Amino acid sequence: MAKLEVNDLHVAIDGKEILKGVNLRIREGEIHAIMGPNGTGKSTLAYSLMGHPAYQITAGEIFFDGLNITNSSVEERSQMGMFLAFQYPVAIPGVSVANFLRMALNARRKVKDPLDKGISILEFRKLLNEKMQLLKIDPAFAGRYLNEGFSGGEKKRIEILQMAVLEPTIAILDETDSGLDIDALKIVAEGVNTLCNDSMGVLVITHYQRVLNYIKPEFVHVMIGGKIVESGNADLALHLEEQGYDWVREKYNGNSN
Amino acid sequence: MKKDQVLSIAKDLQDSIENWFGAEEIPVSAIQPLDLLRKKAWKKFKALSWPTNKDEEWKKVDLKNFPFNKMKAIRLLNGDIKADLLFASSEENRVRNIFLGCSEDAVFKHTEEFTLAYEQLVDDDRNKFGYLAAVFGTSGSFIYVPPNIKTEETVEITLSHKEESLGLFNHMIWLESGASAEVVIDINGDTSNRDAQLSVSNFSIHLGEGAKLTLIETHNESDRSWDIYQSVAKLDAKSELNWTIVKTGSHFSKQFLQVDLEGQDSKAKIACIYLAGGKQEMEFNTRQNHLSQGTGSDLMYKGVLMGDSRTLFSGMIQVKPNAIKSDGYQANRNLILSSNAHADSQPGLEILANDVRCTHGATVGQIDMDELFYLKSRGLDDRGARRLITQGFLNPVIDQVALEPVRKKMLKLVDSNLEEI
User: Fold this and answer.
1) From start to end of chain A, where are the E strands?
2) Contact call for B373 and A92, based on CB within 8 A
3) Superfamily of chain region A4-95+168-256
4) Hey, where are the domains in chain B?
5) CB distance A75–B377 less than 8 Å?
C-alpha cells in the first residue's frame, strides 16, 4: 500500500481551478520529483497535500496510510507524519528555533501518548546538536528567532533541519533548491539522502533539474496545466534538461486537442 | 443612564470625598521636614479636582463604578497600612550604607536622605490621586545608594497588596552620582479577596550624575482591584535608566509614567508588556521629556488583549527648545486575540528643538494567518500555535532582561495569563 495516495485531485483558489485531476502514489523509501514550468500548480499541490485552508479541494481524495485525509486539518496531517518544506519559510518573531522545534516535537509525542511529559531539555539539546551537525548548521542558530533575518539559503537549511528533527514519513520539498548556492545545495541534498531511508518517502518539487543530480529520484513526473502529463524515471529529468518543456506541452496539448 | 447624569453623580460623590478627611488626618511624624512636605502635598491635593470623564486622561474610565468610597478608610488607616514588604538584602549592603527598607524605618534611620527623596516625590508633577498618597500614605519602600557605590546583588522587593479596601504607597529609589543598582519589584495582590480594592502608588526615582539603574517591575494584582500608579523618574547628566515592566492583573489599572531627562546625555530605555483578558481595563499614559542636550529615550509598550478587555496607550515625547541632538523613540504594539477586545493607541510628539531625531509608531493587529499555518504544519494545534506566536510577540522584551531568574519568572507570569487563548 502506498503511504500517500492522491486520486483525481481538483483544487481551486478563490473559485479558480488550479489542479485539474492529479494522481500520485508514493511509497515509503521512494523519491519522486515533480517538475514543470512556473505557474502549472506545483506549489498548489504542495499546499493542498498539507491542508492549507485557502486551497479548496473541489473533487478527488487524499489518502495517508490508507486513511482518507482529504478533510483533515494541517496539524493532523503533520502529526500523522507529513512534512512540507516551504518554498518561502515564514519568520516567527520572538520564537527561537530550539524552542519551536521542542514544542513541535512534544506536540507529536502528546498525540501518540496523551500522558507523555515531553522530551527533556537535555535530551532535546543532544538531538538538535546531532541534527545540526549532520546538516552543517552553526549551533548558534538554535537560539535565533525562527527565520527572522535568515538568508534564503539559511531558511532552506532550517526547513531541512526541522524535517530531520520531526522525522516525517512523507516529506514534500517545495523548491527547496531555489536560493541555494551549489555548496549549500550539496549539504541539503546530503541531509535529505541521509534521512530518506526505508521509512520516508519524498516528493521533490522543482523546476530545475540541478537538484536531481544530488537527490536522485526514482520517479519523475511532469506537471503542466494542473495535471501530471508525463511520468518516467530519472532519465526523464535529464531529457527535460536538454529539451525543455516544449515537447511535453506539444504532446499534451496535442493529446488534449 | 445619560452621560450628564453619570457625570453629575460622580461630581456629588467627589464633593463628599472632600468631607471624608481633612488636614487633621495628615499623619504626623517626629520629623518636622517630613511633616512640612506632607502639608505641602496636602495643599497641592486640595488645589486639584477629582477627575471626571470630561478630562482627556480619564475620558474612558468607568468613573461611575470607580470605588471612590474606599477612600473613607483613610480615617481608619492613619499610620497603620497593611502591606507586606519583603526585602532581600545582604549584610554587605548594610555595611556599605546602602539602605533598603520600608519607609517607616527609613524615616528615622536615614532622615536626611529620606526627606530629600520625599521632597522630589512631592515636587513631581502628580495628579490628585498621587498627592492623596503623598499626604496620607505612610507605607512604601526606600532604596538609597550612596555616591559611586554599586549594589553587589539585585535588590528584590515583594509588595503584596493585602489591604482590605485602600492602599496608599510611596516608593522611592535614590541613586547618588556614580551609583548603580539593579532593583526588582514584584507587586502581587490577594487573589482570594473578593471585595473591590483601591490602591494608589507613587514611584519617585532619582538618578544622580552618571548613575545607572536597572528597574524591573512585575505586576499581578487581584482581578478585583483598581490600581493607580504614578511613576516619575528624574535623570541627571550621563545617567542611564533601564526600566522593564510586566503588567497583568487588576480589574482596572492606570499607569502614569514620566521620565524627565534633565541632564545632558542622560538615557532612558522603557519596555512594558501588558496582558489583558476578561473584562480587564488597562490604561497607560507615558511622557518622555527631553529637557537637555543629547538626551535619549526609547519606549516600547507591547500589549496582548483577550476576552472583553480594553486598553489605552497614550504617549507623548516632548523635546524642549534647548534639547538639541536628542533622540526619542516611542512605539505601542497591540496583538488582539479576541473580537471583543479593544486597544486604543495614541502616540504623540511635541518637538520644540531643531536637530533632533524622534520617531513613533503604533500598531493594532491580529495573528498572522501565514505564521499560524506554518506552525500548524509542524504539528502544533491551533491553541498551541496561537500561544507560541503570542509569546514570540512578547519575548523580545523579556529576552532583554539579563537576570535569568527574573526572566524565567516573567515567562511564567506571561504564560499563566495566556490561559484564555
Assistant:
1) 4-13, 16-26, 31-35, 56-64, 67-68, 82-85, 170-174, 201-206, 219-224, 227-232
2) no
3) P-loop containing nucleotide triphosphate hydrolases (3.40.50.300)
4) 27-368+402-410, 369-401+411-421
5) yes
* Nearest CA-CA partner of B416 in B223, B167, B282, B271: B223
B396 vs A166: CB contact, 8 Å cut-off?
Answer: no
Cell 486513511 maps to which residue? A67
Summarize pLDDT for B185-241 with one digit per residue, the tens.
888 877 666 677 889 999 999 999 999 999 999 999 988 899 999 999 999 999 999
**Contact call for A166 and B389, based on CB within 8 A:** no
Measured between beta carbons, which residues in chain B are less than 8 angstroms from residue A162? 378
Report chain B's C-alpha Rg in angstroms. 21
Residues 6+ apart with CB under 8 A from B304: B273, B274, B275, B276, B334, B335, B337, B390, B393, B394, B418
- Cell numbers of B316, please? 507623548
CB contact under 8 A, B375 and A92: yes
Q: Which residues of B touch A91 (CB under 8 A)?
A: 371
Domain ranges of chain A: 4-95+168-256
Residues of B with Cβ-Cβ distance to A166 under 8 angstroms:
378-379
Number of neighbours of residue A244 by Cβ within 10 angstroms: 11
Q: How far is B304 from chain A (nearest CA, A)?
A: 14
pTM: 0.90
C-alpha B304/C-alpha B194 separation (Å) is 25
Measure B375 CA to nearest chain A CA, in Å. Answer: 8
C-alpha cell at A61: 481524495
Question: Is the distance from CB of B318 to CB of B348 less than 8 angstroms?
Answer: no
> What integer pLDDT is reported at residue B30 of this predicted model?
75
Identity of residue B287: R
Going by pLDDT thresholds of 50, 70 and 90, the confidence category of residue B99 is low
Q: Which of B378, B388, B391 sits opposite A78 (nearest CB)?
A: B378
Chain A residues with beta carbon closer than 8 angstroms to that of B370: 90
What the block records as the C-alpha cell of B269 is 530605555
Query: What are B79's three cell numbers?
Result: 499610620
pLDDT digits (tens, 9 = 90+) for B286-334: 999 999 999 999 999 999 999 999 999 999 999 999 999 999 999 999 9
CB-CB neighbors (< 8 A) of B385 in chain A: 75
Distance, C-alpha A206 to centroid of its chain: 11
Residues B184, B154: contact at Cβ < 8 Å?
yes
